[in-house]
């Protein structure tokens, strides 16, 4: 079975490697173009998937957008199947129709829950007790196609978005190989999703990552964990933007946004209870522990985050 693999971030790399380890014929890898990096934006960096593909001497295609002339380029690969894992573009019907057996998507939720671009942080934001991965047959709708295979897993109480992504990337690779094995043996029938049960996980933007201190401490702790390491939940302290990490809720109270304690952790009052964080990242600086930051910044109880 000739496969064309679509993927871009590190989340997709375990699935690509699993295909190769299991002996599948990966005819080409499609990933996003190299992107500018650094303050000067003069250097570009390849995607993690491109680096993994080059290590294996696989052909790499990098269309700015997977439309138009790219369709003809994809047809020359003569794929039997497409596999899409966090590629970063919505594929048009003309592209989906090229592989003889269609395209499969590795999606980081138990569909129809959390359809959309950011299912991992939203699982934590929503306080979901479990999530998982789905192998879905792609169609024109957003994550709405029939499901071939799913694996569910618990979300740990203190798990960050980054930690959950690492686990689901490996689980997705496992589910993909299991689904392909079933597909090759004609032992699976795609199951339509119940669209009435769909929930949504839209793309994360900067506004969503800003901390609203009027919220309860438990919700803010989930926000901090969901956006760790990227993009980082943030708040304003005077003229400086500060990202906060290592969030948990504590049973203290005060005016929302007010620093209640600074020691091994920074404790800030919320609408109900308080948020405790162990690491911070001031704008333009590296991530660091609260004790180091507080010594340099001189922050004291009574200071106020906006």
| Low-confidence segments | none
SSE-based structural type:
alpha+beta
Number of helices: 9
Helix and strand element order: EHEEEHEHEHEHEEHHHEEEEEEEEH
| Overall pLDDT score | 96
- Residues in helices, as a percent range: 25-40%
- Give the percentage of residues in beta strands: 25-35%
Task: Explain what the structure shows.
By secondary structure, the protein is of the alpha+beta class. The protein is built from 9 helices and 17 strands. The protein has helices spanning 13-21, 48-55, 69-75, 93-96, 119-125, 161-184, 206-209, 217-226, 290-297, and strands at 2-7, 25-30, 35-37, 43-45, 60-61, 81-85, 103-107, 130-137, 147-154, 233-237, 240-245, 248-250, 259-262, 266-269, 274-277, 279-282, 288-289. The protein has a 7-stranded mixed sheet with strand order 5-2-1-6-7-8-9. A 4-stranded antiparallel sheet has the order 10-11-16-17. It has a 4-stranded antiparallel sheet with strand order 12-15-14-13, covered by helices on one side. Helix 1 links the parallel strand 1 and strand 2. Helix 1 packs parallel to helix 6 (161-184) and helix 5 runs antiparallel to helix 8. The longest helix is centred in the middle third of the chain and has 24 residues, at 161-184. The protein is elongated and about 65 Å long. The termini are far apart. 39% of the residues are buried.
């Amino acid at each position: 079975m000739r496969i064309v693999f679509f993927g871009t971030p590190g989340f997709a790399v375990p699935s690509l490697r699993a295909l190769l380890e299991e002996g599948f014929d990966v005819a080409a890898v499609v990933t996003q173009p190299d992107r500018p990096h650094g303050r000067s934006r003069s250097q570009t960096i390849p995607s993690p998937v491109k680096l993994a593909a080059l290590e294996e001497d696989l052909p790499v295609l990098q269309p700015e957008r997977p439309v138009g002339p790219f369709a003809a380029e994809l047809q020359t690969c003569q794929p039997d199947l497409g596999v899409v894992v966090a590629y970063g573009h919505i594929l048009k019907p003309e592209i989906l129709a090229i592989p003889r057996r269609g395209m499969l998507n590795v999606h980081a939720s138990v569909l129809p829950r959390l359809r959309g671009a950011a299912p991992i942080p939203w699982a934590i934001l929503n306080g979901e007790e479990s999530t998982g991965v789905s192998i879905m047959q792609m169609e024109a709708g957003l994550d709405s196609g029939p499901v071939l295979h799913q694996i569910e897993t618990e979300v740990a109480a203190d798990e960050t978005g980054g930690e959950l992504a690492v686990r689901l990337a490996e689980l997705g690779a496992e589910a993909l190989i299991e689904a392909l094995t079933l597909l090759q043996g004609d032992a699976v029938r795609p199951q339509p999703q119940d669209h009435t049960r769909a929930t949504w996980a839209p793309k994360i933007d900067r506004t969503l990552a800003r901390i609203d201190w009027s919220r309860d401490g438990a919700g803010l702790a989930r926000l901090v964990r969901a956006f760790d390491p990227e993009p980082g939940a943030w708040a304003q302290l005077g003229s400086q933007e500060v990202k906060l990490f290592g969030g948990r809720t504590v049973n203290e109270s005060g005016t929302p946004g007010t620093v209640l304690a600074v020691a091994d952790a920074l404790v800030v009052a919320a609408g109900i209870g308080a948020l405790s964080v162990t690491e911070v990242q001031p704008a333009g600086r590296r991530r660091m522990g609260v004790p180091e930051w507080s010594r340099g910044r001189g922050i004291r109880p009574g200071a106020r985050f906006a």
